[in-house]
Amino acid sequence: MTTYNPISALILFFVIAVLLFVLFRPIKGWFWILKKNFGSNEKTIIEDILKQLYHFENSGNKVDMKTLVQVLGFNHTRVVDAIKKMTINDLIYFESDILKLTDTGREYALRIVRVHRLWERYLADKTGFSRSEWHDRAESMEHVLTHDEAEQLSVRLGNPKFDPHGDPIPTKTGKVAQVNGVELPLLPVNSIGRITHIEDEPEVIYKQIIAEKIHIGSLVRVVENNATRIVFLSEGEEFKLAPIVAANLTVAPIENEVVVEDNIARLSSLDEHETAKIIGISKESRGESRRRLLDLGFVKGANISIDLMNPLGEPHAYLIKGTSIALRKDQAAKILIKRD
Question: Where are the domains of the chain?
Fold first, then answer.
């Protein structure tokens, strides 16, 4: 007769949980890697190679075959076969062991990048998907939309110049706008600037930036800058980042004198019994979500206070123009206020 051992059961549960995570974790689990290799056709592999080469060249980096295979995650043989075909079709060429795009290959790559960034813009403006999902969803759609469909999508979105991360969207003729600014660690103490771009790779750093709720378009003031951390103020909150994380933020320095009011804050920081005036909505709030907030009365100059605190944490109910409106913390964080 066997006896129940809770320690052994706990260890078994932990081992199973780890195995399931390794197998099925999003994107990088073994299941998804195998599915990607067996489910991807030659067109998808070629387009992924072109896009990766474009990003490498655009950032001034060189890439050989070994590095490319590691970045893509496809089977080595399938990448080699695709490279052979791409060379024959004058999309790429070798310079020693370095892979480079031809003019034709670069034009093709720009079309893929254009579709990807347009789709991210669509997800940000027209859907409720969180920004942690935009990139992966756009990865699949970039291989599906035709050139004509991409043009229709661009028109529907108002022909945007930048995606929601601040990356320029190539025009249909292949022109790419310049991103203004420098990496945040390059700004000296007491500098003021506006976040113009948030790099979404590598994923682990981007997720940290999302968790910090750092918003594109926000004004920042650097208060500490050294080899171990960057500290800056933005929208009434203090942020502390390691330099490697801060380097994913591009900030356009503001040369002329500007007034950055110290008591500007996010609505999510408002305490019970405090009152405030709305001074605007963060650029992080887009599309339908932004219009809904405006329709509900969250407009510049409106008086606001907390009407009801949720004992479970959120949402809180805010009193605005005589109406009580419930907002989650992440929604309230995108509304800027000035305390009375």
Answer: 40-101, 182-253, 264-339
How far, CA to CA in Å, does 59 sit from each of 52, 78, 93, 182, 250? Answer: 11, 26, 19, 14, 14
* Mean pLDDT of the region 259-280: 83
CATH architecture of 182-253: Roll (2.30)
Distance (Å, rounded) from C-alpha 154 to C-alpha 118?
7
Enclosing H/E stretch for 16: helix 6-24
- According to the CATH classification, is domain 40-101 in 1.10.10.10? yes
**Model-level pTM greater than 0.90?**
no
Please give the C-alpha separations between residue 178 and each of 10, 169, 182, 196, 338, in angstroms, as whole numbers.
55, 10, 12, 11, 33
Q: Please choose, from the candidates 209, 279, 292, 302, the residue with its C-alpha nearest in 3D space to the C-alpha of residue 250.
A: 209
- pLDDT tens digit string along 234-253? 988 899 999 999 999 999 99
SS3 at position 94:
strand
Does the domain at 264-339 match CATH 2.30.30.90? Answer given as yes
Element (H, E) at 148: helix 147-156
Judged against a pLDDT cut of 60, whether residue 134 lies above it is answered with yes
Cβ-contact 177, 161 below 8 angstroms: yes
- Residue-wise DSSP of 207-219: HHHHHHT--TT-E
Q: Tell me whether domains 40-101 and 182-253 share a fold.
A: no
DSSP per-residue letters across 74-89: S-HHHHHHHHHHHHHT
Q: How far apart are CA 214 and CA 246, in angstroms?
A: 11
- Report whether 339 contacts 306 (CB < 8 A): no
